[in-house]
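Worked example 3 (structure in, sequence out).
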């Protein structure tokens, strides 16, 4: 299951009742990523990127976005 705005995977990163043991985790409950407070979501996403530079930890990114032109999705973001 992927949770929250950053689609943090429950098997690898957060703790839930369906996947009690994770390989690596942010030390947070998956439910923490389902509320309006993005502070914990950002903290976990940053730790994921630190362990796996870039977006490679997100399977959907690797299979659907990597190597493709993403300019239209970041237009106006001043990146």
């Amino acid at each position: 299951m992927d949770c929250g705005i950053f689609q943090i995977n429950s098997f690898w990163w957060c703790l839930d009742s369906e996947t009690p043991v994770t390989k690596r985790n942010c030390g947070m409950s998956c439910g923490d990523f389902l509320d309006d407070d993005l502070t914990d979501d950002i903290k976990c996403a940053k730790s994921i990127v630190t362990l796996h530079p870039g977006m490679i930890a997100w399977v959907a990114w690797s299979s659907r976005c990597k190597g493709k032109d993403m300019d239209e999705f970041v237009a106006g973001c001043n990146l």
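Notes: The chain is about 30% helix and 5% strand. The beta strands are 2-3, 8-9.
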